[in-house]
Amino acid sequence: MATTSYSGIGRYNYKLLPLSLSSITRCPCHSSPSKALVPARPRVVKLNFVFDDRKSVLRLGRDGGLARRRVITAVARVEPEQLGELGKENANQEVNKGDKLSENEDLLSEHQQKASQLRKRIVFGLGIGISVGGVVLAGGWIFTAFMAAAVFVGAREYFDLVRSHGITAGMTPPPRYVSRVCSIICAVMPIITLYFGQIDISVTFAAFVVAMALLLQRGNPRFAQLSSTMFGLFYCGYLPSFWVKLRCGLAAPALNTRIGASWPILLGGQAHWTIGLVACLISISSIIAADTYAFLGGKTFGRTPLTSISPKKTWEGTITGLGGCVATSIILSKIFCWPTSLISAIAFGVLNFFGSVFGDLTESMIKRDAGVKDSGSLIPGHGGILDRVDSYIFTGALAYSFVKYFLPLYGV
């Protein structure tokens, strides 16, 4: 009967040398036994060979996981034609054990990576939330400067996506100098909105200048260059500027709550607690609630895909997110005493939800065509700026239109 031999090794590194079955199964009484393993370093180490014709056993140190697999696999595969049926079966068992060990180690490593990624998302998410909350409360030029910086980075990420290999395979991207100029124009739009109140003329003039630069460039101008650039001005500059109009433009005091009536003088006094501030707080909180409830609902109940643009989104998660968004809008409306009616609070929540969903899907469509997972890597665990603010891009314009025109018009 063939005998399979295995070696018990401590915490040392060894070079595996070619050996035959006869050399590793040779009886110790022979005069010149062959060496199976040689230390990688010049150390004197005792090697204990274990012979067992019924059960294959290999004992290694705690740190010898990788060595264990290699030794088992190498020894088990040495001259299999000489092992016999029982030897082959034992060798296959040991190989399978090595494969299972490798799978377990891979699963453990993957679990650790997911846990580390989750911790990063939570830590940086809380930091971003606190920072944004302070900026929204500050308002004025602090809020506008923050918006301008975010818009600039988001515009750069957008034009990088437009120039990515996935999109350029089917279209001609705008020249690099045009992308940079458009990013600067987008960053200036929130500042113009703050100081002039309107941005329509400025956006029209900027779009005209950019269009002329594209049409008069050397070579062969393409419509794809014009369309992607015009959409970039609209998506990255014009739409985010509505948040400045919402926060800083709606300056009517909202003193129906104890918070507004007792707002500290050091933070601006009662005049600082405005309709625009309350609307921003409700809208941002509703969007956060929509994303959170949609994620939890999709993980728990998600079965039916919502759209092929974003396969991970489900109808069950979307409905759960809608409920969380509307509930948050109603609760905050009772706390802030604005809007005054239940119908208005529900409508505001629904509007915020649809704005966030379609903003998210729009950015997902751009990333899918670009062939990337994240728009950037600026925020650890979250991706780029566009990955974090995609739900807010359309929502600012919808919220401003609701507060500015819908509420006064219908009086609800």
TrEMBL record:
Catalytic activity: a 1,2-diacyl-sn-glycero-3-phosphate + CTP + H(+) = a CDP-1,2-diacyl-sn-glycerol + diphosphate
Gene Ontology CC, one term: membrane
Keywords from the named record: Lipid biosynthesis, Lipid metabolism, Membrane, Nucleotidyltransferase, Phospholipid biosynthesis, Phospholipid metabolism, Transferase, Transmembrane, Transmembrane helix
EC class (word): transferase
Pfam families per UniProt: CTP_transf_1
Pathway: Phospholipid metabolism; CDP-diacylglycerol biosynthesis; CDP-diacylglycerol from sn-glycerol 3-phosphate: step 3/3; Lipid metabolism
Signal sequence segment: none
Keyword check for Lipid metabolism: yes
Cellular localization per UniProt: Membrane
Record keyword Oxidoreductase present: no
Membrane topology term: Multi-pass membrane protein
Membrane-spanning parts: 122-155, 195-216, 223-243, 273-296, 342-361
Single GO BP term: phospholipid biosynthetic process
EC number, as in UniProt: 2.7.7.41
Recorded superkingdom: Eukaryota
InterPro entries named among the record's database cross-references: PC_trans (IPR000374)
GO molecular function: phosphatidate cytidylyltransferase activity
PANTHER family: PHOSPHATIDATE CYTIDYLYLTRANSFERASE 4, CHLOROPLASTIC, PHOSPHATIDATE CYTIDYLYLTRANSFERASE 5, CHLOROPLASTIC
Entry similarity comment: Belongs to the CDS family.
Listed name of the protein: Phosphatidate cytidylyltransferase
